[in-house]
Amino acid sequence: MTGAGPAGSVPGAGCGVVLAVRVRMLGDWHVGSGAGRHGFVDRGVQRDGDGLPFVPAKTLAGVWRDACERAARALDGDGVSGDEAAGGWREWVDFLFGGQPALQERGVVPGGGPVRPPRPAALHVDSLHCPPEVGAVLRSRPLLRGAAVFVKPGVVIDPVSGRAADELLRMEEMARGGITLSGRAELAPHTVELTVNQAACAAALLDAGARLVEVLGGRRRRGAGRCQLEVSGLANDWKWLEGRTAPAVPGAVSGPVPAVLPAHERRLADGPGWEAAELRLVLRRPLVAHERTVGNTVRSAGRVPGRALLPAVLERLATDGAAAAARAGSLVVTDATVEVDGQAGRAEPLALAAVKGEPGRLINLWQERPADSVVAEPVDGSGYVGPYRPGQGLERRECAFTQHTHNTVDDALQRPVEAVGGLFTYQAIEAGTVLRAQVRLPAGLVAEGWQERLSGTWRLGQSRKDGYGLCEVTATAAPCARARPLPAQAQGAGARLRVWLLSDALVTDERLRPSSRAGDLARVLGAALGVVLAEVPESPPAAADETDGAGDGGGGVRFSGVRRTDPWHARWGLPRASLLGLGAGSCLTFEVVSGTLTAQAVARVECEGVGLRRAEGFGQLLIDDPLLHACLGDTTAPADTPAQDPDGGGDGTAVAQGGGAARLPGAAAAALAVLEEAAWRDAVQRHSPVVAHTGRSRVLGAGHEKVRASQLAGLLPLLSHLRSPDDPAARAWLERLRSVPGERWRRPWPDAVVEAVTVLLCEPGRVWELLHLPETQITADLVRAGALRERLWPVAVRTLVEDCLTALRRTETSRRHEPSRRDGQLPPQA
Q1: 355 in helix, strand or coil?
Q2: CB 470 within 8 A of CB 459
């Protein structure tokens, strides 16, 4: 969009334009998490990894789209015509934010015309967070972090009586206003090419919509959530729209499909070899790798399937050869799994069992038989293991998940209802998780150095246009599977192979029907290895001492499972055909019936996989891996902890720890100033009642209880106008307390009380000495602490004196109502 030339098209089309998005919260706001804390908060706000409130991308995209729709209706005239032109402004809203076919089918979108396939969004929006420097400062100051939100009471008004309904008091968390949240959006027309006029149209419409956004979040029709949305990085502003008509919406660009597959799609045995790229993915935002939908909950898999990575890989390689190789199965993209011991985690073999009562201890049922006193439960296949090193143990990890609740708001009712989707929950892989995958290509298919082109920022998984799936990818060259020498008894007929599936395997039977039988996998694997394999009949496992460390040990024992995958067609919004096969982690034993097995054939199969849809990561396996023949015994080490990015975590990007206030940027310093002032006010409110109850004499002086309540109450109007320790009205009032008109006049205030009040009102440090606030926990800088003492001095004095007078009144009231010590009778009621 920026820098468009006169040729009529945008230079660099196909590359995303990054937009800086900032929202300044002018008032307190609430973006709910859908949950609360029992007995304390009924409605909580959403928090990021630093414990600070943030604006989710779905919320921002919703209010931004609604504003752009208002602008489009104004530009189109009435905006309710059922026959909208192809180049109407409403079409541009769908182009930027994506289509809504589900709402069209339900009749929620009037005048939407015929139902069309879903249009992917050209605008990818990220969540808005406090500056990362603020999170770095608050990690060691929980009191200061807690000042970012406060609890606000609410009631339900009875429509009949007009008063608060009984037993319907609720407590709601509110985030403090005055803070600027920032994030980014990306206008990424990676499937289209925009002309200069189209780029200017998109920029102007987005700018006009941003200027129309005035409120966001919950309770916005009750005064909460007032804001200003600013977008920078656009080539034009909203004034471009004046007197313009909407240009035609660009269509998708599809590349030519070669009629004849190139020669490089022959099998590896006929080619020069394979090249591989190791991908290290650091999740900056939660990622939804859709596994299944249960009710209104979308559940995520513990890995990112290769089919989700394949489009991003082909987009960055951008060669017809790579796309053709993927269709033929020569290009392989493995599943992205949790990083274990610096390598991609391997699906834990179902032949392993966990010893009950001994966390972290595993045994290999293929080689070991648990003692009678030991209870071993087979693993469920949800974990991942690292490489096996004899004597060093086996490291195991599981993928960490998080849940986020969202809702779809009806435009007319302005609340979530079932007709438009209602409330739904996403289960996602936790931000900060580190995943690893591999991309394998035939050597020479792509120009040298193609691995570096895969590095960058990716968006993966479901709802990636709304803040999910943002990750940083680092790609490095890596070797493919190397040939391992095979023992002589494992090469000819009668040799037995132990096969470990690292991913689901899709094979068919003789009638080309999906099959999960081990015999069909043996047939396909044997054809790939150049031998004839047969499934070994099942027999009870033998202990290691019975086999003397040789032979199969476990006989034909199978540890396998069946997995069904239900993929989704994102473009059409319809389910694809279910995929049925043997699940990852399955362990099977096959016997060579005829033929000679070679190390080169084993390495080739381990590199390219077996079965169908190998380009999407299916069919990955290992043959006779050392782990399958190991006796783990007591060497299993590690706890089941998720792999996390050492430089980041939570929900935000990595930031450096520490840093003084002088080095903070403007937005971070302003946000920190708001939080610090709120934290100081909260601390004064907490500490003042304690001081008033335990040390009232230190505040008002000894003998203050002898002063009449009406005279002490004279402090209140004085404090309401108090601004500084040098206030002339306060000094004049204190001078009148010290003066004695005559000998017969008795001074109404004791000297100690007058002196204590004078010190409190005239010395700026006295009130802070009495309150004794934890300043190091609520302030990040001593300079700002001094400024806060000066600015909040009147508030602290007023609060402390009011609490002391309240405590004094309560003490006197309780004393009057105590039973008489002489006769045990209650005093008469006033």
Answers
A1: strand
A2: yes
Q: What is the pLDDT of residue 741?
A: 56
Coil, helix or strand for 356? coil
* Residues 6+ away with beta carbon under 8 Å from 230: 21, 22, 23, 24, 210
3-class secondary-structure state, position 691:
helix
- Alpha-carbon distance 571 to 214, whole Å? 33
The pair of structure tokens assigned to 203 is 């920029």
708-723 as b/e, with b when 16 or more CB fall inside 10 Å? Answer: eeeebeebeebbeebe
For helices 782-816 and 666-694, the axis angle rounded to 10 degrees is 30
Label residue 530 exposed, middle or buried (CB < 10 Å: 0-12, 13-18, 19+).
middle
| Structure confidence at residue 104 (pLDDT) | 63
End-to-end CA distance of the chain: 80
Block residue for tokens 């001074």 = 747
Mean pLDDT across the chain: 81
Using alpha carbons only, give the angle 570, 573, 578 rounded to the nearest 5 degrees: 80
| DSSP assignment of 431-447 | TTBEEEEEEEEETTSS-
pLDDT at 111 over 60: no
Q: For the purposes of burial, counting CB atoms within 10 Å of the CB of 736, is it exposed (0-12), middle (13-18) or buried (19 or more)?
A: exposed
46-60 pLDDT, tens per residue? 998 888 999 999 999
Helix (H, G, I), strand (E, B) or coil at 179: coil
Q: Is the dihedral of CA 689, 695, 699, 704 positive or negative?
A: positive
Q: How far apart are CA 219 and CA 215, in angstroms?
A: 10
221: helix, coil or strand? helix
Distance CA 544, CA 378 (A): 18
> Residue 117: in which H helix or E strand, if any?
none
Q: DSSP secondary structure string, 279-331?
A: EEEEESS-BB-EEEEETTEEEE-SSB-HHHHHHHHHHHH--HHHHHHHHHT-S
- Tell me the C-alpha distance between 102 and 105, whole Å: 5
Phi, psi for 99 (deg, rounded to 5): -80, 165
The single-letter DSSP state of residue 256 is P
Give the H or E element holding residue 717.
helix 715-720
Q: How confident is the model over 470-484, as pLDDT tens digits? A: 999 999 998 876 666
Kindly report the backbone phi and psi dihedral angles of residue 155, in degrees, each rounded to the nearest multiple of 5, phi listed first.
Answer: -135, 170
Task: State what percent of residues in the chain have pLDDT above 90.
Answer: 34
Classify 489 in phi/psi space as left (phi over 0), alpha (psi -120 to 50) or beta.
Answer: alpha
Please compute the mean of the pLDDT values over residues 517-543 and round it to a whole number.
82
Residues ≥6 apart with Cβ < 8 Å to 125: 21, 57, 60, 61, 64, 183, 185, 465, 466, 467
* Residue pLDDT, tens place only, 641-654: 555 655 544 444 33
